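Throughout our pipeline, every protein is held as a single compact record rather than as scattered files. Nothing more is needed to write down the fold, since each code stands for a local backbone conformation. For reference, a complete record is included directly beneath this paragraph.
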Amino acid sequence: MTATPAREGSSTPAGASSAPSGRGGSRGVVLREDASSLVFLFAGASAITIAATRAYLVLADYPRVGGEVSPIAHALWGGLLLTIACLLAVALHDRWVPWAVSALGGVGAGLFGDEVGSSSRRRTTTSSRSPRASSTCSSCCSP
């Protein structure tokens, strides 16, 4: 068996393979070179989406579907974008995919997070104004 010299810049010793050996071998976690940029894109897309959604809702006077019945659930759109991002990540292998996944995932997380935050604020505001804490609590705690 002949030893092969180590490649320049490689941490693999000469003659050793960088691939895992059999089932027991492990490479460990491999961090992408552009990971910090992708995380920054995800976080920025989420923050901008939340700010834009809040601005739209304020300007549109918090529109509701069916009058006073239910708010427009942008969590559904957020979930759809998160699903598309996940499918792109597992189905495609191209240079643009991580960037698209970070952007779509960030917008989806922003929409979803804004809706969850809005609904929790609505419940808190409603329960603090009414004598009964909530419909769930009043059904089990009322005299």
